[in-house]
Write a structure and sequence with these properties.
globular; Trna Endonuclease, Chain: A, domain 1; eight-stranded mixed sheet; alpha/beta
Length: 157
Amino acid sequence: MVQKAERYDIKGRKYISTPSKYYYTDIGLRNALLNFRQYEETHIMENIIYNELIYRGYHVDVGVVEIRADKDGKRTKKQLEVDFVVNQGNKRYYIQSAFALPDKEKMEQEQASLVKISDSFKKIIIVSGNAKIWRNEQGITIMSLFDFLLNEDSLDY
């Protein structure tokens, strides 16, 4: 009824012990169990993407990218999350789930973790609505939830 996604340090290439994330295998049962109180479209969309990736036979983890940043003249470490690190054989995809990208600031927020990954595997942001599939200046593919769900080969576009 509930599946667990482990946290994976992308740069260190190892699993880490910080809290895992859990996804419901059936969103309808989830909503019924919670008596339809917690209805956040962003969480439900992320859960639907997770379920579809599992259905397609991928191994799915939650990614973490550690970066160093200067704050008030001090070097600090900060962890950015990648919603999904998706593996199948020699294929790997990094996927962010974003309900909407209404402006440049939100786009930068959603792609911040992806642009810090230095390998050449495909990076994707899935958004709700009817966005056309396109690739931005950083090489990140943006596609709609509908395109993702309705085409099993959508990750290879």
